[in-house]
Amino acid sequence: MTTITINGTQRTLDIDPDTPLLWVLRDELRLTGTKFGCGVAQCGACTVMLNGTPRRSCVTPVGMIEGADVTTIEGMAGREFDAIQAAWRALDVPQCGWCQSGQVMSATMLLQQLPAPSDQQIDEAMAGNACRCATYHRIRAAIHDAARTLEG
Amino acid sequence: MRALALVVVAALVQPAMIQPAAAQDLRTPDQITGADDAARSAALFVEMGKVLTHPRCLNCHPVTGGPTQGDDMRAHNPPVVRGEADFGPAGMTCNTCHGTRNVSFATQPASIPGHEAWALAPVSMGWQGRSLAEICAQIKDPARNGGKDLEAIHAHNAEDGLVGWGWDPGQGRPPAPGSQEVFGQLTRAWIDTGAACPG
Q: Which of A54, A105, B138, B147 is the most buried (most CB within 10 A)?
């Protein structure tokens, strides 16, 4: 048995401890906002918050995170997240949308750590989140937009 | 779900080629001789160098920029910069992907490396592209080695868990030569013979 808190609710899981967290989120709990992209921590589509920082859920066996606090895109809230969400909508950032929940996780963390990131800092922080629609220019613009919102 | 995999991205990950001979290729101190203590000491460090310059160690001892990966020490993918804390950039620190232990992928026969202490070595301990003489001088210099004296260096080489990861690197990744036990013995003998550096 593995016990973890997901979006504020404690869950006790009777599941193989080697099962990736992503499998649990999508297949067991039907929290399908978190996406499968590559399965090898190369694309970032499966990013969730683990104890408050981004984590690729496809390479996170649930047995490795006993007692942890997990937040998926469905459970995100807070000042930086709200600003990112608003900017994403305002600039129509997603195209197909598959990678976007992971992008939003990383962008939110970046603004929590760097309230006014430069282009280079955005590129460094977002380098692990691939977008095959190549919306990178809008992602970068939206992060700047969200940062400006937070300044006020 | 797997049908939706970003196959182009996944194709970037190639399981490392296994080199079975590497695990055997580290001599013990009694197999290493020299004309005098200083010569033997330097020879012992050269043997230690097989470990120090192995990709399992060097990949996280960059001199400039971020880590490398694989036996060919290619650029880390995704691109990663060192960051102020030797732990990656703000928003994408090492533990975004690297966990507290090695994790085998659920989708292919390879793994992502991990350890409780996973991080880059500090810039002062960057070894990539440097000679064994230069690495030896770095290792002995408390100003660059984190304030370690020779005994602390022995303890680090013989007992440190992240050093030990080099011999337990996870599926699809050849280990460093020999074992941490022999690496510790070599370090002990190197110190006892004067901790000389190769020329």
A: A105
